Amino acid sequence: MLKRFERVALIVLDSVGIGALPDAEKFGDHKVHTMGHIAEVRGLSLPHLAEMGLSNIEPIPGNPPADAPKAHYGKMAEVSAGKDTTTGHWELMGIQTSKPFKTYPDGFPEELIRAFEERIGRGVLGNKPASGTAIIEELGAEHMETGSVIVYTSADSVFQIAAHEEVVPLDELYRICETARELTLDDRYAVVRVIARPFIGEPGSFKRTANRRDYSVEPPEPTVMSRLKDAGLDSIGIGKISDIYAGVGITRSMKTESNMDGVDQLLQVLKEPYRGLAFVNLVDFDSKYGHRRDPEGYGQALEDFDQRLPEILETVGEKDLLIITADHGNDPTYKGTDHTREYVPLFLWSPSLSEEGVSLGIRETFSDVGATVADNFGVTAPQYGTSLLPELKWK
Ligand SMILES: O=P(O)(O)O[C@H]1O[C@H](CO)[C@@H](O)[C@H]1O
Ligand SMILES: [Mn+2]
Ligand SMILES: [Mn+2]
User: Fold this and answer.
1) pLDDT, tens digit, for every residue of 43-86?
2) Of 82, 127, 174, 273, which is most buried, counting CB atoms within 10 Å of its CB?
3) Which one, of 241, 264, 109, lies nearest residue 183 by Cα?
4) Domain annotation for the chain: domains and CATH numbers
């Protein structure tokens, strides 16, 4: 009989890619490699991930492959037609996106912006693709004078609204986002996410706050998390998780302030008696360093995470399975400020598994994670993905 775990803890290191996918060129990404390039430009010391088999997946300079990797390890390809967070996370939970979401390289259509301005009773500044920190510096002062909100997008299907917390109070900004959400659900626009981007401070030193809020469309089909919830199991989202799945299939949700806070909250949850899935997204890698093209900060954040691993492994119990992976790449040494089309690393670890992990090879889809979770809890398997349970070597 196949053995099962009582609980799964799933960590997504947002944007921590591990090398270009074969179709990366189609996404404008030439020889991208988030982890590898960070290691090349500033050095990267990840002793704990290395022990788990990091460089057995893919050689990362400065981190020797382990003779006996502690974890089961491999890498996964993304099959969906996108490299955004929503697409990556949905695929992890068994939903593949074949038609790319609509993007707005020239800004949103005039008639949408006019309708939006009328509904919110404020003007719009910007309306173009931009980096979120650059555009508040560019238009923040004008925003403070006029009260008009800053609207911008990116290579992703996102309608982002930036406003100073003292100019547009948070509850109003959230209402404004709900209006944008309503307007952009229309098939004509089909925007995946509306994002509130509040900030504080003075021109020249604006700072975005942790009060960001995402309003995603609902997944088109039930996710593995919906199946868990329907089966009466816990499906706990920590950080952006609930936002990414529009609250679908989530039984409990906790916001986080930072990567370290996300790790703290996961450890807290692991100390409680949940039964099912605890799923955390660590977004700083992506939002604070990847999009900012800051390999130094990104490398430091990876090292900080690595330092937390012993504590994480200590907290994962005999009946728990830990899965660590990512949702796309964001090579901070690459041109532009957008995500990169990459493989993502995959680690599975439990005190009940063999001390020497086995290679899980190159997985064809992120959905193998969802298929594994579904198989483990005996709920309906997603349409895509192959369970990894039969490949695990137990103690
Ligand atoms: O440049 P900032 O505002 O961080 O925006 C980034 O964050 C968005 C959502 O994760 C991405 O689409 C990208 O535009
Ligand atoms: Mn992401
Ligand atoms: Mn991103």
Assistant:
1) 999 999 999 999 999 999 999 999 999 999 999 999 999 999 99
2) 82
3) 109
4) 7-95+220-391 (3.40.720.10), 110-216 (3.30.70.1250)
